[in-house]
Design a protein that fits this description.
tRNA binding; 423 residues; 9 strands; Rossmann fold; 2 domains; seven-stranded mixed beta sheet; alpha/beta; Rossmann-like_a/b/a_fold; 44% helix; sulfurtransferase activity; cytoplasm
Amino acid sequence: MECGGQLDDMETLPQRPPAAKKKNCVRCGKDAVLVVQTSAAFCRECFLNYFTHKFRSGLGKSRVVQPGEKVLLAFSGGPSSAALLHLVKRGMEEGTQKKRLRIEPGVVFIDEGSIIQGFDVDQRQRSVQTISKIAGESGFPVHHVMLEDITTVQATEADLPVSNCAGTSPATTEDVERQVKSLSTDDTSADRLKRLFEEAKSLTAKEDLLQILRSKLLVRVARTHGYTKVMVGDSGTRLSVRIMADIAQGRGAALPLNTGFADDRHGDVVIVRPMRDFIAKEISMYNTICQVESAFLPTLTTRVAEKASIGHLTEAFISGLQVNFPSTVSTVFRTGAKLCVSDTENRPEGYKRCAMCKAPLDTGQQGLLQSSVYKTSLAADDESDGGVVTGQDLCPSLCHGCSLTVADFGDFSTLSDSDQLFT
């Protein structure tokens, strides 16, 4: 540029971005090493104290879990469930008796490999071995159960034996691996479950059905082994996605149970969500600092398109907003947390709870259910000369969300083979 150039020409040159202002810990004033949110910067020690206190205070305020109670920890190998397992183990090793977490924990892992395409026997064995190693290091009793057990165990409200479910430790991993191999080769339950999912026309229905089956199986394992509470690792980020997805799928009436701290729809076994106050970023930071080991296992939505299902699309939408608007997850989650279960005292007898998901039945959904069943019955009547397969033979009553899921299956005979899903 010439000496006589205008000063305004300098404004077109690229400018160096201003240096980020160093933040101090909001508690002790030391140099912060991580920032949870814009206004929440912590040093390493203060973040661990904040994270642990948040977990313990959530359990203490709810008073759902009592001292000496048997609690089953649902472990999937993911970051959230791994953090839950580490927090419980750490809480039981506290120095003072007053602060110690006084429960009798156990760990359960549900193998869902039978419904995942391309997940062969060798991969299932390696996943079981990895999960056994991580869960076994906690020193708690570990229970391995296959998702296909849902088709072999008759569902009642009484205590039931859970087939192919045994307490394991790192020393008994070989027995579990032989169990996986036998189930995947010569057991028909895996084939029945696979056909059941193949009947679904959309991935949304598959995800919805998998969530229901997983909950039912957790409750069965808990009842069989004497656990009264089941802790799951649902984080605030996951629950925010579920709030939006459930509303889109017509499950708004069940939101307080699906996303609340305690889910008591099953009566004697209560599902507890102690990780619901943490976002995924906080959990990731905790696992990094404490070197918590986790494992990645493929799911139904692994390597699928963004618009493959309502849940997957909602997750991408929430995650995209969270990047530029850090309050997205907390806003959605806190709004959904204000909802409560509607009064069911004045509803007709026999229509108080959904026969499939056990949630309170929606008002006026009997007509919609009959309409969905009628359309499916006409399709079945056109293909066969025999008796028409009706939804009333499968389940006496369904909520709006479950009726849409059932209507998404082309053949009701596959569901009738698994009639324990509706009891």
